């Protein structure tokens, strides 16, 4: 069965969609004549819940952590370097971010298996550059829900941001071993390979998206990336 709201495939006997929380009662089964693998329009970001939908920008989150010098997020300054002043931001927006962080932390303390709180915090730490903390949170999610592909993608990208491309590609390859045409794993594998100047390998993964999902936006993006590689080289 598939969720009627976000399109996520539901687990057997699920009462609620694990991605968006919609009641599973009455969800539609995939039609028998449905064509091949489909790319869901739902990004893994949809699983982070309502806490991120507040009037803020990434800059405000970064500045909040900067101002607080949160040890979980901000690396220690090099000795002797002067700290730059943060530009002024809206105090109410900063307050909203701080309240959201504290609410999420409280929820997680009360229930260490609160997946919405885990993922929401992970995103906010990632935006602020706190990749080590984000990595811990994604691993915490996977300890509860080990087969969540979206979170594995997020974890792989976090390793990439931490300059651990070997680990990132290993996680993506595990996904591709189980689902060779998983479009997001193919795309991010290609992106990382291209960043490492492994252009032939990157092109193979983008080409697989084009072959597996012709006419889709991801296929168009893959074709554009291949063309850009040829132009750059």
Overview of the structural elements:
This protein has three domains: 1-34, no CATH class; 44-72 and 89-158, Tetratricopeptide repeat domain (Serine Threonine Protein Phosphatase 5, Tetratricopeptide repeat), CATH 1.25.40; 164-233, Tetratricopeptide repeat domain (Serine Threonine Protein Phosphatase 5, Tetratricopeptide repeat), CATH 1.25.40. Helix 6 (165-178) runs antiparallel to helix 7 (183-195). The chain contains nine helices and no strands. With 233 residues, the protein is mainly alpha-helical. It is globular, with a radius of gyration of 20 Å. It starts with 57 loop residues before the first helix and ends with a helix.
Structure described in brief:
This protein is an all-alpha fold and 233 residues long. It has nine helices and no strands. The protein is globular.
Spatial gap, N to C terminus: 45 Å
**Helix count from the secondary structure assignment:** 9
Query: What is the class of the largest domain in the CATH system?
Result: Mainly Alpha
CATH-derived topology of the largest domain = Serine Threonine Protein Phosphatase 5, Tetratricopeptide repeat
Share in β-strands: under 5%
List the helices and strands and how they pair.
Elements: H1 58-68, H2 91-110, H3 115-127, H4 131-144, H5 149-161, H6 165-178, H7 183-195, H8 199-212, H9 217-232
Helix pairs in contact: 1-2, 2-3, 3-4, 4-5, 5-6, 6-7, 7-8, 8-9
């Amino acid at each position: 069965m598939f969720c009627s709201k976000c399109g996520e495939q539901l687990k057997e006997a699920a009462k609620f969609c694990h991605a968006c929380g919609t009641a599973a009662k009455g969800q539609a089964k995939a039609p028998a004549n449905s064509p091949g693998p489909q790319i869901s329009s739902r990004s893994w970001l949809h699983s982070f819940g309502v806490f991120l939908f507040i009037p803020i920008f990434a800059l405000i989150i970064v500045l909040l952590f900067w101002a607080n010098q949160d040890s979980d997020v901000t690396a220690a300054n090099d000795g002797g370097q002067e700290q730059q002043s943060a530009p002024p931001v809206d105090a109410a927006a900063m307050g909203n971010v701080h309240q959201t962080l504290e609410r999420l932390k409280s929820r997680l303390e009360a229930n260490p298996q609160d997946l919405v709180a885990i993922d929401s915090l992970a995103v906010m730490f990632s935006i602020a550059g706190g990749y080590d903390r984000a990595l811990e949170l994604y691993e915490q999610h996977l300890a509860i829900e080990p087969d969540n592909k979206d979170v594995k993608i997020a974890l792989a990208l976090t390793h990439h941001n931490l300059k651990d491309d070997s680990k990132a590609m290993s996680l993506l390859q595990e996904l591709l071993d189980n689902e060779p045409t998983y479009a997001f794993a193919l795309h991010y594998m290609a992106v990382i390979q291209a960043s490492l100047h492994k252009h032939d390998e990157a092109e193979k993964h983008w080409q697989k998206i084009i072959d597996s999902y012709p006419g889709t936006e991801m296929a168009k993006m893959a074709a554009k990336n291949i063309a850009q590689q040829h132009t750059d080289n």
